[in-house]
TrEMBL record:
<dbReference type="Pfam" id="PF01230">
    <property type="entry name" value="HIT"/>
</dbReference>
<dbReference type="InterPro" id="IPR036265">
    <property type="entry name" value="HIT-like_sf"/>
</dbReference>
<dbReference type="InterPro" id="IPR011146">
    <property type="entry name" value="HIT-like"/>
</dbReference>
<dbReference type="InterPro" id="IPR052908">
    <property type="entry name" value="AP-4-A_phosphorylase"/>
</dbReference>
<feature type="region of interest" description="Disordered">
    <location>
        <begin position="188"/>
        <end position="208"/>
    </location>
</feature>
<feature type="domain" description="HIT">
    <location>
        <begin position="51"/>
        <end position="160"/>
    </location>
</feature>
<protein>
    <submittedName>
        <fullName>HIT family protein</fullName>
    </submittedName>
</protein>
<keyword id="KW-0547">Nucleotide-binding</keyword>
<dbReference type="InterPro" id="IPR039383">
    <property type="entry name" value="FHIT"/>
</dbReference>
<feature type="short sequence motif" description="Histidine triad motif">
    <location>
        <begin position="145"/>
        <end position="149"/>
    </location>
</feature>
<feature type="compositionally biased region" description="Acidic residues">
    <location>
        <begin position="191"/>
        <end position="202"/>
    </location>
</feature>
Length: 208
């Protein structure tokens, strides 16, 4: 228990209490509190409150939009798991994959493939995580508007930071990432003939 020195509370010496110091410094990431506190998450399910409905109404650089199709678009994740983490979203405010039209399904799929081609050319990832979280119980941060995750992965990108310090290091500014990917997209990023295995042996590192 804490003692007192001249009537003033004093912190106890940790060496005198049970337990062993863990040997890790603390990496403080106060910017993550914005996400934890719900910044940019809609308070209700209405389209007017939805960040994925709002993003395509803005200029590309302001909304972090990388590419636009007829029925869906590609946007950077504001809270990326890895550099270049993209989201493929239908313009229409719809929550469930089964509610998409055939045209929306086709374009979400084609934009997902194009995103992989662009990311392979720009940053040479070793693999990808693709997926949709359907509903809050499945981990969807904005459950009311469907979005497909395209997360580039590199060998060793799951280091001690997220495991021990609950921290993810993302060394590239979002504006720079958006510009880099948008420029690459404009130069043929949706080329379906690109060999998906071209970069399989590349030693590119996360953040390049």
């Amino acid at each position: 228990m804490s003692g007192e020195v001249d009537g003033t509370p004093a912190a106890e010496d940790p060496a005198l209490v049970a337990g062993v110091p863990d040997g890790f410094e603390r990496l403080w990431t106060p910017h993550r509190w914005a996400y934890i506190a719900g910044q940019d998450k809609p308070a209700d399910d209405s389209a007017g409150a939805c960040p994925f409905c709002r993003a395509p109404t803005l200029a590309d650089d302001e909304g972090l939009v990388v590419a636009r199709g007829a029925h869906a678009y590609v946007v950077l994740n504001l809270y990326p798991y890895n550099p270049g983490h993209l989201l493929v979203c239908p313009y229409r405010h719809v929550a469930d994959y089964t509610d998409l039209t055939e045209a929306e399904v086709a374009e979400v799929a084609s934009l997902t493939r194009a995103a992989m081609h662009v990311l392979r050319r720009v940053s040479h990832p070793h693999g990808f995580n693709l997926g949709m979280n359907q509903g809050p119980v499945a981990g969807a941060g904005v459950a009311a508007h469907l979005h497909q995750h395209v997360v580039p992965r590199w060998g060793g990108d799951s280091n001690f930071l997220p495991i021990v310090a609950r921290t993810k290091a993302v060394p590239v500014l979002l504006d720079d990432t958006r510009r880099l990917l948008a420029d690459a997209w404009d130069h043929g990023g949706d080329d379906a003939g690109e060999d998906a295995g071209d970069d399989a042996g590349d030693d590119g590192a996360a953040g390049t």
